Batch of 4 targets.
Target 1
Amino acid sequence: MDKYDEMHFAKLDTDREKRTGFPEVVFCEGKRDEYLVQIYKRLLENDGRVFGTRANLHQYETVKTAIPGVQYNEVSKILKCAADDSASKNTSEGIGLITVCTGGTADIPVAEEAAETAEYFGGRVKRIYDVGVSGIHRVLSKAEEIREANCVIVVAGMEGALASVIGGLVENPVIAVPTSVGYGASMGGLSALLTMINSCANGITVVNIDNGYGAGYVATQINRLACGSKN
């Protein structure tokens, strides 16, 4: 039977990496301060590293009092730490290649969540930002670079058309991430989501609105398969 670490308010999945190739990740948003601190301390003790998403500045300051080496990115809202200095090492030497593209600059926070997730799990990531369809020459000028990737993450709000454009340019899988960026009729990302799941371009899969973490996770699985690596 699979093991877990009983904390009463949480049951930490200590066997997850053995089963799936990925350790448990903390969704920080909404967690009480004392719970979050105890979870981070226990995971650091068990695994030697911790990766959390959707953390705010207050949570960072709270966790930092217990774990001084914890690192926080205000853009991606990633809160991570490691028992050694691996959390701060340059991640440019990861395996394979995952490329993350955004429609606009406002999409970068979600894109960075995806990019940092893929880097944390061992992938090499290239960022190509602000190549939306309102100036389509921008993405076309990067087409050859984008084609080099084992997997492409496309992060876009508004009408979400960038995923279809890139899907028609590359042979490898595209993971589309709709964002909540846009005016009223974008309905908090629903318009982009509907465009992406109705794309006529082949090879596109879609994750939930603003789910950069989910895109980075799936992209890592694809990238590992392309590299012949399980983890």
Target 2
Amino acid sequence: MTKSDHHDRLVDAARKARARAYSPYSRVKIGAAVLTSDGEVYAGCNIENASYGLSCCAERTAIFKAVSEGARKIVAIAVVGSSEEFTSPCGACRQVMVEFNPAMKVLRRGIDGYSEDTTAGALLPGHFKPAELSKK
């Protein structure tokens, strides 16, 4: 399978996950899917809660699903929303993404035709690094 095939598969999984979003408050639907180094794909959607702080973004849902199944190396993530502004991962999601791979490819797609490819590290320059924990 080519890199392009993997990316198409990833974006398709994110689109399907978007349809399962639970967003009765914002009505914003986001889907995400991650590709692991062994070729597995894990998808997730945003899940809202009446207590907004308990909501979870699609990106973290997909990453947490992969990690809970044993994956540790995530090579790419696709985020699908309605437009550019609804494909931009929040700060918490960006920090989780760089935890698993700062070079992770980030494929942002809007159902309105918006498309951008970047990396997790580019989205969060100066991110908090595990090495910071050992500094005294």
Target 3
Amino acid sequence: MIAYLTSHIGGSYKKNGTRIPTKLSTENGLLDNLKKHWKDNSKVLIISADADDIEVNDSIMNIFAASFPMSGLSISQMYICDNRNEKLVDNISIYDVLILAGGHVPTQNKFFEKIRLKERIKDFDRILIGISAGTMNSAEIVYAQPELEGESIDKEYERFLSGLGITKLMILPHYQDIKDDILDGQRLFEDITYSDSYGRELYALEDGSYFMIENKTTTLFGAAYLIKDGTIKQICEKDKSICIM
């Protein structure tokens, strides 16, 4: 498997409240790296984040069905797996590309568990793309950073979940957008996430940054930060890359 664990891959922009397809992100060599491994006329399966949200799921698929060819990544088929067609994952080996969509981490995590995705991808040897929540749920142990009002103060909310095991890294996307957020009257990072980082390492990605895993080597591309034991430091910059493991 070649995995691209991203914060955001582009592919659309908003105009008058409507999503318009456009090319995928070229930041930090993402599109170029995808093209190196992309098979012509690839069969693509998207795994949804919210299996009940049919309207959003169809919108995601329709956007990507246009934006991937715009980007020079040809496709022959594209489907999205949600509660209408869970059996699509029964034949996961026929697909050339799996995309783990973005959304609410715990909701997606439950769907992954329901369809036994971890078990099904063990022998998948092609391209996997994680986007936002999909990237977070790719971890062996997922840090489900509180996101919705009430989650950070809910004693029953689980912040650490069992993930797909594609990487040992706990990844947080969209750092540039959420670093100053306030949730439940607390600072999302300084008061919540930093406290959760004791004894752990969390990797915060800016949009346009990503991890690429190939031949058991993990390379970080673009601006990213390591949060550990209540502190944060930048470990990579835009247009640069480092080997993580």
Target 4
Amino acid sequence: MLDPEIVKEVLDTMFGLAEDGMTMLGVTHYMGFPRSVADRVIFTAEGRIVEQAPPQQFFDNPRHEKTRSFPGQILSSHQTND
């Protein structure tokens, strides 16, 4: 796990690159990041693409059960580890 200061530095750099129009592919569990900068979110599970959609649709109206449960699992695991 990255140190929180390093995470902030990495995300700030990626936000800046996105604002400059750079195309990037990122893999993250920090769900706020793709919500803010992605053009498309792709969710995978067990080595397969489960769902792909624009961020608003992906986060506000996910189609697949695994997609619907994932953000809650991440938030729950972070709350218990803090």
